[in-house]
Structures are given as C-alpha cells and as structure tokens.
Specification:
The structure holds 2 protein chains of 2 kinds. By secondary structure, chain A is mainly alpha-helical. Chain A contains 29 helices and 5 strands. In chain B, the strands form 3 sheets. Chain B has a 5-stranded mixed β-sheet with strand order 2-4-5-9-8. Classes of the chains: A mainly alpha, B alpha+beta.
Chain lengths: 576, 239
Amino acid sequence: MTTDSHATAAEAGSTDWADKHYLLVDDFIGIRILLRESLRNLGARHIDQAASGGEAMKLLAKTRYDVVLCDYNLGEGKNGQQVLEETRVRNLTAPSSVWLMVSAEKSVESVMGAAEHQPDAYLIKPITEGVLLTRLNRVWHKKQVFREIDQACMEKDYLRAAKLCDAQIEVNKLHELELLRMKASLLLKSGEPEKARAVYEKVLADRDYSWARAGLGKIRMNNGEHEAARQIFQGVIVENKYYIDAYDQMAVAYQLMGQHEEACGVLEKAARLSPNSVPRQRNLGLAALKIGNVGMAEKAFRKCISIGEFSVMKTPDAYLGLARVCGLKKDAKEALQWLLLAQREFSPEQIGLRAKITEGMVHHETGDYRRARKCGDELEAMLAEDPARPEKSICMELATLLFAVGVKDAPAGLLCYVVKNNHDNQVVQDEVQKIFDKAKMGDEGTSMIIASRKEASDLMNKGVLLWKTDKLNEAVSWMRAAREKLPNNLRILFNSAQIIVSFLQQRGYQAELAAEAMEVLLYVDKIAPGQQRFAQLMEQLVQLTPPPAPEAELVALEKAPPAAENPGKSVRERAG
Amino acid sequence: MEDQHSSPELFLFLASTVHDMKNSISVVSGTLESLLAAEQAKDVPQADPAYLQMAQMLYQTKRLNDNLIQLLALYKEVGKPGYPFDVQPQLVSQVIDQVVDQEKILLLSKGIRLETQCPPDLIWTLDEDLVIGVLAHAINNAIRYTRDTIRLSVREHGDLLELRVEDNGDGYSQALLEAGSAAMDGMAAGVNFSTNSTGLGLYFSSEVAKMHKHRGSSGSIALENGGALGGGCFILRLP
C-alpha cells in the first residue's frame, strides 16, 4: 500500500502518549477490551476501566487522569455527559487533560446538547487506533493553542485573553473560527458588546453559524432591544430547530418584555425537544409557577427531580417549587414531605432559609395562618440573630411572606437593604415598590425607597470625593467601611476596587491591598458577570502585579505581540 | 420524526437495541482487524484459505456497520434541521488519513493497493464524521469492482473541494450510473434497490453532500467511468 501523506506517523511523535494515565468508561466489556488494546498499542501502560458512571466517578475522585474515553450511553445511572459535568464541577481533571466522548452514533443529544460542559471531541464507534491517535493529537495540539488563553481566563483577565486570541489567529488558520468564537465570548464577558458584535459579523460574512447569530441576539438583548433580540432567536430556530440555546435565550427576551405566557411556551417547546436538561426543566417550572400554570409547573419540577437524581446539576429550586405547587393545590401534607426531602438532599447553607420561607408560604396558601405566623416569627428571629442578609431575590421573597403573616418592621428593613444595594437599579426598585403596595404600605414604601437610595449614594460620593481630593488612605478605608455596610452594591464595590488600583498606581505595589481589590472584583463578577469595569480593572490590576519569577517575565516578553498598544506595557518597562 | 414523540418508549428501545448491535459489531470488526494485523505482521505469503475467509468476514462486517450507521442517520433524517450536522474547518489531509486508517487492514488482507493524494495544508469546512463515512463507504464499494488498485484523491477545483475514489476495474454498469444521478435528484424512491445493494449508500452520500451548503451552492455526488485508473469513479464535491 502506498500513501502520499505521512501526517499520522509524524504526529505520533508530537506528544508522548505512553506515560499518560487513561480511564476507559463503557458498560460493554468487549469495547473496553478493544480500546484497552488500542491504547496499549500506542504504548500506554496506565489504563483504568469503569463499567458505569458511578464507578467512573469513584476512580476520577482518586486519580488525576490525563485522558478519559467515556461512552455516552452507560445504562443505568449517570450517562457520559453527567459524568463529564460532575468531573468538571468538582475539578477532578486538570485543564490540560483530554476528554473524548464516545458514542455508537451521531446523535442530537450528544452533539447539540448545548451543554455547559463540552468534551474535547466526539468519537463514533467503531474506533480504530488511527482515528484515536489522530483525535488525541488534534486535541493536544488545540490545547497548546488555547493554553495561554485558558490561563488568562482562569485569572479572569478577559481582555488579555481576547488579545491572546488575536495573536493565535495570526498563526493558526485551522483554529481561526474557534478562536474568533472564544474572542467574542471573552469580549462579552468584558462588557465590550460592540467589539463582540464586530467579531460575530465577521464570522457571519463568511458563513452562517447559529452560534454567531445567537451571539448577535444576546448583544441586542443586553442593549435592551428585547424585541429585536427575540426576532433574531426566532430566526436561528427557523434555520436550525435543534439549536436549543436559542429557545432558552428567546424565553429570557420574553421575560424581559414581561410576556411571561410566551416565555413559558418557548421553554415548554425547548423542554419537549431536549427534555433531559436539569436547568431547563427548572426554568420551565419557575416560569409556569409565575403565570400560575400549576399543572405545567408540577410536571416540570417532577421531571427536573427525576433527571437530576444522578446529576451534579441537581437543584433545590425543583424541590421548593414542587412544595409550592402542592401548597397551591391545597395539599399541605405532600408539600411538607417535599420540603423534608429537600432538607435531606441539600445542606442547610444551601436551603435553610429558603425552606423555611417556602414552608411559611405553603401554610399561608393552605389557610393555616397560625403555622404561617409561626414560620414568620422564626424567620424574624433568624434575621435578628445574623446580621448577614441573603441575596436579593430571597430577601424579596422573605419580605413578601413576612408582610403576609402580619410582620411590618423586619420586611421593610429587608426591602430597604435591597434598595441600598441596588440604588441605581430602577427595575429592582419597582419590584420593591410592588411588594410595599401589596402590603398596603405604598406611600411609606416610596419614602423609604427614596431615603435608602440617598443613603447609599451619599456613602459612595463621600468616598469618591476623598479619592478625587487625593486623600487616598482615607478613601480606601472609607470605601472598605461602605462595603461592609452594603456588601452587594455594585457601584460601591467597583469604586472601592478602582480607588485601591489608583492607590497602587500612585503609591507603589502592595500585595495585601492588591489581594483586597482582587477579592472585591471576583465577588462583583460572581454576583453580576459581564461588566466592562470588571474587565478593565482586572486588566489594570494584573498589570500592576509583579511577575512571580524571572522566567515568567521572559515568557511574557516573548509572547507579547510587538504592536500591541497597552498589554504587557508595564511588564516590558519593568524588564527594560 | 413524528413517531419519536408518539411512542418515545418504543423509540428508546429500538435506539438502545441498535447501540447494542453496534457495540457487538465493533467488537467483531475490531477483533478481526487485530487477528488479520497479527497475520500480516508475520510477513509470509498469505494464501491460507482461513486468512482469506477472515478478510471476507471483515469486509462483510464493515458493510453491516456502514449500513447501520446510514440507517440510524437516515432515520434521524439527514438533511433535515434535526440532524446534528456539525461543520468545522478541518485539515483535509487529516480526514483522508483517518479514512485510510479505517480501511488499511481490509485492503491489505485483500491485496489491494490504496494510493492517496492530498494537498498537505488544505483546510476545508465540512462535517468530518459524515465525510469520512461517505469516503469509507465508497472505498468498501470500490473493493468489489477493482482489480488491485484504488485511488483516493483530493483537489480544490474552482470553488469546490473535489474528493474522488477511483478504481481500475471494469467501471460501473449503466444501471448504477443511472442510480447515481437518481440519488442526486433526491429520488430515494427512484433508486432501484433490486439492481444493486448500494442504493442506500448512494442516497446517504447524496444527502450528506447536499447538506454542505455555502454561499448559495451545495455539494453533490457523481458516478463516472474512466478517471485516473480507467475504472469506476465516485466523486464527492463540497462547496
């Protein structure tokens, strides 16, 4: 046999597959034997095997595997996607490790799942040694291309990561498309939608990709052009009815326009096409509950609980939601059983407060006002005991319940806290006003909202004034105290980080202050991802940080693009 | 497909049965390949009838597997938006290497030479798994017609990527040439399944070709006689 191309042979030498640790997951022993033979022929010596998802999880928790070959269909218990998700969520493999998903056929479920955690490649059985080696080498090569970008992402330095994408595009024609996709998502995370739009449009000028069009839709949505966004998602679905992400996004667009019936309808369609997503069934249940479609909510929550059984994506929302559903159906007994089950499945930190709120609501709705009041009293006592407050939506739920059972001061205080932490967010303030209105405290509520808003902006303005008048020490400590009072106020958090960054720029680097600013920024990104100020401040902060070792500096110098405007500037100057 | 919704349990049962069948076939073909490879490594003349029978078994196993893949794909309606069509920029030479690797043991056991020719740095946007499936099927088919040589070649021709599988046999019959163009006309029912067993393969290949669309043009297949080796010639063109 003759052949002109020797790529496979040449590539086999590009990385050493012999010393790696392998895990084979397949419920069919014959396949495991075949794959083990193929791996041995590549020189592999360390090969473990699992016959089920559960067995795979045990091995993954014990050993750091470099390569996992996992079948999608694993019989009873977890499927391959669920094994992958749990592995990624629990960080059981290194970012450099390779995950190959194996399947007997090319299926919508396995390829188009729009799952959050994607494998590095899909393989269709039967797998020959050559195909295995080709795909292994290809993934390895791709990981090299993305290595620095992934590193920058891990450091949350999204702007640097986006610039690294550009540098790789220059030298990697084959991965150009994926690099562009990555770059666009990084720009979105950095709060640079206009630049992301340019990337999507460049991609679409060449070929029609659903993800690029959906990306344009998301940008429209963030701009508040909800109807335009909805139309884009609709168009994506017409072209590609299995692009599930477009349904989920369209539902969000409807929700933002206040069209909850339509949102629920779209989610129902998506759930029919791809029913085995825990988050989707949860969203459908919540949307149905919102419009009072108790039957649909019940069906969605029950499905959510049953498919979540083996999944790391299992969510308390479904249990609490089902309890609400049973309450609305006046079945207090079953409602309380679900609450009990929820408390057994999840830790008190995850649901303690929410379970109690739901219990109060169930009693209230089933007319047991004495028990509802008792829950209210217990919650009030919990609030008095612990000064920390739960997140916005839980605060509002709690306030609603407390008002309903006749408590006045505690819920008003909670709502003021919510307003102070969102003093420039009109949507939140409108929602708060509605809760006051429902409690027949409309006017009192309005003046409390105004007072809270003023208190927060005064607190912030004083800090900014100290900063502008160059009293940097005082500004830093003032903002620190402001943060303690209003731990979820985005503008206070950002200004606090900004002031620390200026301090470091003007007075020199201090590791402790830099760590404080980093902590503040990472917290903001957790509660409100995709902010432009986050990306800008992160980039400034990373630039201020001295490199850990001389070698690292050298690498940074070599890899810095010569014509770049800002990136790595301070590093170069320091090195020079 | 509608009946997936009306009887999800039956569909799940059928799908899991096919998975099971494919697992078994994978084991059979994998085992045969390693047995044949072990024989080939001995470097002695392979006129042993048992060896030749094994080669024939591998050929039939591959046909069975191809047919199952095609049936599964067609059941999910290739060419319809529901099928997970996944085009990505690919290094074409890498695609060709994977085809060669899938076929090499079988070809060697039947004493057939495979020549390949492909520009090493050519990148094209295509669905890799589907194209590998089509080419592997075309080679399996050419094995029946060739005397001793098959040629797999790739070139950029105008705005199209042209992939050819040619053999040095007597060429396709008139009926087959007609089946080829009928498949391209989208006439699944027009393919005369009684004249040959490749009707499904041609139909599948033409569906795969047509799914590839770019700037208003879509892919196609063609059957011809002649070509570089003077025999039958299967051509896949992708925009």
